[in-house]
Write the structure tokens for this entry.
Amino acid sequence: MFRLEQVSRSHDGRDVLRIDQLALGNEGVTVILGHNGSGKTTLMGLLARQDRPDTGRIALEGEPLAALRQRDLARRVAFLPQRLPTVHGLTVRELVRLGRFPWRGALGAWREEDHVAVENAIVRTGVTTLADRLVEETSGGERQRGWIAMLLAQDAPVLLLDEPTAALDLAHAFEVMALLRTLSREADRRVIVILHDINLATRFADRIVALKGGTIAFDGPPDALLSADVLRGLYGIDMTLLPRAGALPHAVVA
Ligand SMILES: Nc1ncnc2c1ncn2[C@@H]1O[C@H](COP(=O)(O)OP(=O)(O)OP(=O)(O)O)[C@@H](O)[C@H]1O
């Protein structure tokens, strides 16, 4: 899906991202990990075309990302930023309807397929009983599902999410990641998601890409990340791997 070549981005004369070669989005769920300031949001901002690289090329299915019309990009890539705007006076259903913007006909006409996409997204994300509630009257976890429903209604094959679990408790974080994995399996979406929690990442990712100081320090399957050496290299601390029957080990700070 995405192919990056010799991509760099700097701020104030300092390289914050430098990637020689990277293909992303061919797996169901790709998790991007890395310490604070490692370049995760910068990378996702480039993929979502919220920002442009200083050097290098980014292609989406062989086409230069920079050349795509905004509407075409939105039909292919749906992006949920880390800081979501505060929404006042909209119901969850109305929020989900906003996801249809790249598909609306001339003069913004609302068609049957738009209704179907919205209702499908509501059902798939489990927000049916919330659909007529005001967004500001939902809990953090419920609201996050509403935003993901909006993303799904956009009907793009690639979903980019920047720390969608950041404000959620453990149970709701699990729920959101399980939902994203289900969407990748059953709705054929390619999910690229930034997380901080190593254990959440290894549990739900098909592939993990970890950044360190703006470069790719690890790229592989979850079980390969779970080595004390790899984790020390990424985060600079010692971690212990607790074995679990029938599951990948659980990483804890030693
Ligand atoms: N607009 C900007 N101006 C100056 N520096 C910036 C800007 N945006 C990002 N940076 C710097 O670039 C580096 C990478 O930032 P980025 O937000 O991509 O990291 P991150 O891995 O997403 O971090 P976090 O886990 O804290 O969200 C950081 O050192 C940050 O301070």
User: Anything to note?
Assistant: The chain has a mean pLDDT of 94. The chain has nine helices and twelve strands. The CA atoms of residues 6 and 20 lie 4 Å apart.
